[in-house]
Design goal:
The chain is mainly α. It contains six helices and no strands.
Length: 129
Amino acid sequence: MNIYLRYVLAFIIGMIGGTTFIYIGVGTTIMIPLIILLGVIEDFKKTIGTIIIPVISPVTIFPLYEFYKRDLLDVKVGMFLGLGYFIGSYITSKYFLDVFHKDTLCLIYGLFSIVAGFIFIKKSKKINL
């Protein structure tokens, strides 16, 4: 994949993550399948390590360092994810916070959980679907 395309996709995924964090609290959770499905990062463990970057806090600094030591994160992709996450969550919280009713958000979260679960069950190759 073209390096610039990876960074553009990372930024867009970060925006989606920031937006969904504001609406249904699953910012990083939604980013994992998107990163893998779009081929931004193909290794699951590296994806998990990389999505720690957008949500750096005192709680995540030590796990981030451990992932870094084991070469299980992509710092540049993580920075673009973080930038998109920041901008997406800010814009959504400032201008679009009351767009969806709570019942709609519950439906979106439930559907997302089912789809994400199906994707990861299929990817695990433990069950042939």
